[in-house]
Amino acid sequence: MKQHHKKSDASLTADLERRKTNRRIAQTLSGLASISLLPNLWAQGVAAKGSWPNQPIRMISPWTAGSGTDIIARLIAEKLSTELGVPVIVEPRPGAAGNIGTALAANQPADGNTLLVTSASFAISPAIYRNLSYDPVRDFVPVTKLATAPLLVLVRADSPLRTMADLIALTKKDPKSVNYGSFGNGSPSHLIGESINRLAGISMTHVPYSTGGAPLDLLGGRLTVAILDALSQTPQIKAGKMRALALNGLNRLPSIPDVPTLVESGIAFDTVGWQAVFAPAGVPPEIIEKLNRALNQILSTAVVQTQIHAVGCFPVTPPTTASQWGDMFKKDVQTWADLVKRSGAKID
């Protein structure tokens, strides 16, 4: 009997050892199974992080820092960064009347990580330049229109000219003494100046600037008049350094309500420029739609509308879908082309 009990004890001990071994094997296999799942879990995490946007967004502005387009770009970029959850960096790339920065944007990958924020000069370029390295319609996809941007006919605050009638009278009396500065050949301000010449029967001399020097030359007395954006120059008016004789478009600006429109001043010109966002052609429609919704959400807020008014522009209301802005943009390209033809504006 004692031998039988000893044998049973040995069997029990062996049993216990087998169970311990089996548990260790099971735990090891379980651990190996968990490890085998890690690549799949990692891949799923990467896929989730890979959804757009997953890196900083460049917002190329083809104009100088501090220009109207640059100001609007920075105002929008700050809010867009919050909406999308990634940094949105404004990158001024001025030169060649906006063509250098625009060509750079056209050649970026169509991944939604590079945008172009620009002005109506973008729509004018095909009518002005014979050998553009990009096509505004073919090489870009419209995202949304941000604001309309009237231009001001400006003189120094101590100028004897107080109205458009004064400017016209002086130019008719002494044409050679009157010149006007613009953003550059073929820019909206150039076309407005030439349209004023045509409609008023005068001949102001055009002085183009491509690097933002017109305000300094106006204040320095080297220009009689400068046709510049209300957005960047309204502070100069409020500081008492400049006086605005008129602005283009159909409406007076709330920020400078005493300044009449050109139409009110007897010059039948109401075409107005704008600020808008585009992306390189080929960006997936779902990214364009997401950008459009985010930007329009920003534009719909009271604080942003107030800020846009404060800098001398009109926020676009109601907001445009990407498709609506695309149709409007194509029409705008034709409108400015007709204006170029009528005005006789040429690249020097």
Folded structure, characterized:
- With 348 residues, this protein is an alpha/beta fold.
- The N and C termini lie far apart (121 Å).
- β6 (179-182), α6 (188-200) and β7 form a beta-alpha-beta unit.
- The strands form 2 sheets. Strands 2-1-3-10-4-11 form a 6-stranded mixed sheet, sandwiched between helices.
- It has helices spanning 2-49, 68-84, 99-106, 121-128, 164-173, 188-200, 214-219, 230-238, 285-299, 302-310, 322-343; strands spanning 57-61, 88-92, 114-119, 140-149, 151-156, 179-182, 205-208, 225-229, 242-247, 273-280, 314-315.
- 41% of the residues are buried.
SSE-based structural type: alpha/beta
CATH superfamily of the largest domain: Bordetella uptake gene, domain 1
Briefly, what CATH class of the largest domain? Alpha Beta
Q: What's the architecture of the largest domain in CATH terms?
A: 3-Layer(aba) Sandwich
Outline the biggest β-sheet: 6 strands, mixed
* Share of residues in helices: 40-55%
Helix-strand topology string: HEHEHEHEEHEHEHEHEEHHEH
Mean pLDDT: 86
Query: In DSSP terms, counting alpha (H) and pi (I) runs of 4 or more, how many helices?
Result: 11
Strand count: 11
Strand portion, in percent? 15-25%
Compute the number of structural domains. 2
What oligomerization state is this entry in? single chain
Strands of the largest sheet, in order across it? Answer: 2-1-3-10-4-11
**What is the CATH fold-level name of the largest domain?**
D-Maltodextrin-Binding Protein, domain 2
Q: What is the approximate shape?
A: globular
Unreliable stretches covering 5 or more consecutive residues: 1-7, 28-49
